[in-house]
Design goal:
By secondary structure, the chain is an alpha/beta fold. It is built from twelve helices and twelve strands. A seven-stranded mixed β-sheet has the order 3-4-2-1-5-6-9. It has a three-stranded antiparallel β-sheet with strand order 10-12-11. The radius of gyration is 21 Å and the shape is globular. The model has no long low-confidence stretch (mean pLDDT 97).
Length: 388
């Protein structure tokens, strides 16, 4: 049972007598695919719903990419404001929170540092600390499970909306666990309650939960996408197509100058764990190289327990940069409201990852460099890990 399912099973008791705001998106559904907004609105006197808030991609999931903002509006059925947290403001203002007692956050994360919903949550926690509002986080599964962490930990000098706290690329926490960590790390004076899941364990990926998958953002259509994303999102910092404009974003990637067969052979020779590479040709319908035929590969994850997305996509980017240096390039700013630093450095949480790729370091050498900071991250988050 998700946090939402448990809140409903308790007849919304945690919200009695409270003026409530909800932070939601399309994946904010219960086990029967009923949306949090609808269930709260239909709860009668149990929930005094006053406002809705939506993160990047819109409360309806309608916007496609980064830095595509959306404007707030008034809910046509409920007559209450719907505030955009990906537009003029990414942090709720005091005016948005005025008239509320409790802000309920129900967002499906995918376990990667770059996925902005966790940063919307952090900014909501900060805003509620500043205005004396209570926060309830409805916990949901980390679709990758909670046993493995991967990648480097963010350098504070490279904070952005794809990384506001010192966590790794694949963090291994649920959104409720992250909420507790954020409050402790920032020293926030906020009343936080997490409605924990029932029956989830760290060894479970999303399929094991039996819950229906609803895409939390337009380019996260399946759990296959979620599994590659902690590594595949690094493609956004390059001139390579990350497969937007195809039906398999992030699993498929390449460019017009890439020979998919050659790339697949090189990557297959690496014997990267838990995956296989298939050469593909594809024509994105929009985004990078829209309308152009690209060569590339599709990553097929054959063993999720062994698959290491950050190592895998580090190998892929390094291979393309080495094989086609005349075509490959790092994407130039702006990216996620950062106008000066390279997008790849924003995504990688510092310059070290890019510099190692440029210097010819192998993915395995880079992985060794992450281990000490990953151990430190495990130590500082141990107290916030609710599930076994």
């Amino acid at each position: 049972m998700t946090g939402l399912d448990r809140l409903q099973a308790g007849h919304w008791r945690a919200l009695r007598g409270q003026r409530v705001g909800l932070v939601v998106h399309p994946a904010s559904v219960d086990g029967n695919l009923r949306h949090t907004r609808d269930q709260a609105a239909n709860a009668g006197a149990a929930v005094d719903l006053r406002a809705l808030f939506g993160p990047q991609h819109g409360i309806l999931g309608q916007t496609q990419d980064n830095m595509i903002e959306w404007r707030g509006f008034r809910d046509p059925q409920l007559g209450i404001p719907v505030h955009s947290l990906y537009g003029e403001h990414r942090k709720p203002t005091a005016e948005m929170l005025d008239g509320l007692d409790t802000l309920v956050i129900d967002l499906q994360d995918v376990g990667a540092r770059y996925y902005t919903f966790i940063w919307t949550m952090l900014l909501c926690l900060e805003a509620c600390a500043e205005t004396g509002k209570r926060v309830i986080v409805l916990d949901r599964p980390n679709p990758l499970g909670g046993e493995l962490v991967e990648g480097n930990v963010l350098d504070p000098e490279y904070r952005s909306f794809v990384g506001l706290a010192p966590i790794p690329m694949r963090h291994g926490l649920t959104i409720g666990e992250l909420a507790g960590f954020f409050v402790a790390w920032r020293g926030l004076d906020v009343e936080l309650e997490v409605v924990w899941m029932e029956g989830w364990s760290r060894a479970q990926d999303f399929e094991a939960t039996g819950l229906p998958w609803v895409l939390p953002s337009p380019n996260m259509p399946t759990t296959d996408t979620a599994y590659v994303y902690p590594g595949a999102c690094l493609l956004e910092g390059t001139n390579l197509s990350e497969g937007r404009g195809t039906t398999r974003p992030f699993e498929i990637f390449g460019a017009p100058f890439v020979d998919g067969r050659r790339l697949a052979a090189v990557l297959q020779a690496w014997n990267l764990p838990g995956c296989r590479f298939r050469p593909v040709s594809f024509e994105p319908t929009f985004h990078k190289f829209g309308g152009q035929v690209c060569g590339g590969v599709q990553v097929h994850v054959i063993d999720r327990a062994l698959f290491e997305p950050v190592v895998t996509y580090t190998a892929a980017i390094a291979a393309i940069a080495g094989l086609w240096p005349e075509g490959f390039a790092w994407k130039q700013p702006p990216y996620e409201y950062e106008a000066h630093k390279l997008p790849i450095d924003i995504l990688a949480g510092g310059t070290r990852w890019r510099e190692q790729v440029e210097s010819g370091s192998t993915p395995w050498q880079m992985k060794v460099g992450w281990l000490e900071e990953l151990r430190a991250f495990a130590d500082i988050t141990a107290a916030h890990r609710h599930y076994a």
